[in-house]
């Protein structure tokens, strides 16, 4: 059973070996070797091989004759094939020999076709590359010519159109790589040109501003010329007088130039052909840089940079020099720079779209206005020259008018000029103070001698003086006033002219100008001239004759005040009777000065009297008085007589304060007599004088009588009766009381209106009586050393003691 299965398995394996690919026989043979019948299987395999060999041999034997026949045929075919090969070789040789020329021609044709194709390809490529090269060459030329904006446009066209069409050649790659660098170079170069432009206009803004201000000045002159043709002849005359000495500086500085930096060469222009700011400045660097940055997409960066740099330049321009106030050229340079700056900005505003806007320019102007006004206030405060202030005012007006022509608001500048008007007025007052003092110091205080009608007419042109009585007197003659009257009047007119000069071109109405001039003139009269007159009156060593002449001079100046009113009305075209018009205070000024001179006369007379009284040398213990007045008093009376003779020159009419001739002289005489009386009484009652003898009192009485004779003689006409004697009434009643020893009457009638000694004060009487008592006691002590005490002297001493006691009781009663 086992062997049958084994035989069947071997059979299966053999069939499998016969039918299976040799690559897969491994597992089959493994199954044989894994079994126990390996030998048996080998026997079966050998038997199967033998069977196949027999079958092969049978098949070969069966087909052998056919094989032999096929070999025989094949040998025959080989011979024919050899012949055919020889024929083919010969034919091929012939063909090769015959095709050599054709092959050569075909190679030549192929080469030509290849060259033709290469040429066509080259032409096509060159057709695309030549525009690139031409464009690049054009770009290089533009760069060399510094035409950066067209170069940037060329670069843009090259990058966007030409290079993509040319293809990816090495030179195209190099060009493409250079494009960013070229753009950066163009941007940097244009920015460098802009910086040069900004630096140039900063340096030359003075020239730009000077040109703009000259243009404005020429335009203003033309407008004034047209206006002047419409004014009256008097108005033209006044304006001509006001413009004397005013010169317009038309000398410009040398023209400047910078290559491609914004400043062009400008030849010298004629006076009526002043170049405009746009003619002086080449703005192409700004426009070029703006376009370049716009194309590069960096317009905002450019605008911010430009505005930032211009703000910095504005701060530099607005910073004045520390010594600007010293000369007008310093102010002119300062204004020229500011004008030049804003002329450039105004041009940029109107020729570019958005580089600067109105708000930016207005912001810069507000900054400039505030800093300019602050600088002018500071520096003008140092100025002490009115001519410089006036020139500065005219320069500020031109500065304001120039910028106003460009549309900038300048009202604050005119407001500042109105503030400077007060400073100008103060400086004028100081200058005129010196002028007035110089006139007063140099005056001889004597009437002006006039030898001919020409001299009289010359003085009449300076001072409005009319005196029909004086006109009747033949030449030579003397005017009543001294030289300082016409000189002071002329100075007053010059001051008014100076005030009018400042008010010109300030856009003020005639009424405002008139009011300003009148107020300034009032200050000159009430403060400056008044102080100068007070100085002349109060200065040392001024004589009575000079004071008298000052009174005469101020009288005539007072009369001329209404001429000054008319003069101001004529130059301002404002009637003097206008409502709310300011009136001149000249009348009160000259009245006050005249009154001060009168008071000074009184004071000087009193001082002279005091000087004479200092020479008094009374012997208060004298036993007997003299028969003649003291020498010092005689000299004093002589001095007073000669002095009051001078007062005959004083005017006695046409002045308010002197309704009667010689009132000043009368007042001076009365004042002198009163002062003399008071001083003599003080001399008698002086504390240093301890004793007064009756002899000394008699001498004192003689002196007082001399004074009364002087008063009674009437040294100054105009006193009624014995009015002048009343100055000595107190002294006379006191001396009569003691010389007549009328104490009973005094004590009995004291306090009654009809009292004989009504002017005697009990205190005065007591003081003098005590001095007499001390003198009598001292005399009695001296006499007692040699003789017995006299009874009558003792009785008189008792009487004096009784009167002293009664006087003290009287004083005590009055005080209670």
UniProtKB/TrEMBL annotation:
Residues 44-213 form the Exocyst complex component EXOC6/Sec15 N-terminal domain. GO terms for cellular component: exocyst; plasma membrane. Residues 412-771 form the Exocyst complex subunit EXOC6/Sec15 C-terminal domain. Transmembrane segments: none annotated. InterPro entries: EXOC6/Sec15, EXOC6/Sec15_C, EXOC6/Sec15_C_dom1, EXOC6_Sec15_N, EXOC6PINT-1/Sec15/Tip20_C_dom2. GO terms for biological process: Golgi to plasma membrane transport; intracellular protein transport; vesicle tethering involved in exocytosis. Keywords: Exocytosis, Transport. Gene3D superfamilies: Dsl1p vesicle tethering complex, Tip20p subunit, domain D, Exocyst complex subunit Sec15 C-terminal domain, N-terminal subdomain. Belongs to the SEC15 family. Component of the exocyst complex involved in the docking of exocytic vesicles with fusion sites on the plasma membrane. This is Exocyst complex component. It comes from Cyprinus carpio carpio.
